Model the fold of this input.
Amino acid sequence: RKEVEQDPGPFNVPEGATVAFNCTYSNSASQSFFWYRQDCRKEPKLLMSVYSSGNEDGRFTAQLNRASQYISLLIRDSKLSDSATYLCAVNSGYALNFGKGTSLLVTP
Amino acid sequence: DGGITQSPKYLFRKEGQNVTLSCEQNLNHDAMYWYRQDPGQGLRLIYYSQIVNDFQKGDIAEGYSVSREKKESFPLTVTSAQKNPTAFYLCASSLTGGTGELFFGEGSRLTVL
Done:
């Protein structure tokens, strides 16, 4: 089993839609969880950290389910500019393990 | 501005040549990392360093070497032993190794002809 798994998509959604991504992880000892956004041929950029209590930043909501070992990202009122690949990251030892990313395309 | 600088951004080399990718950070971060990204493969960890003069192999260290002589610098050498070196290489740093978020440089795109 891979350490961090994501549905690669692509998710094609119209502007204004709500879309959710999940990411499962295998290491039950993991303590830190993040969502990164990566645009085509660019470096990943931190979108948000994921806390046990869940957290929200504008249109973005991240949640952690330790019992089922997954994290989620919810994007409300999708914008064209949200089109990107979303990577989840989970700490393992002294580094982060990344999923392969979920591709999102928001269409007019 | 504080950040991570990688150079060169694009690099072309002939097969069998060693190449060194530069990574410098002025964030005063202790930990630094090298990842490799291939299409559809996500990010894979090559090497990481938690402190100066110490570094550890990641998941795909074969064919690569690093050094950490200064806190600010973590260069990566792609040796001729690396069988498939064409990839997007990403350097990252974090305040402390382990549970912290990573900040990435803009990446170096290596193409071996």
Observations:
- The mean pLDDT of chain B is 93.
- The longest strand of chain B covers residues 42-51.
- Chain B touches chain A through 26 residues (CB under 8 Å).
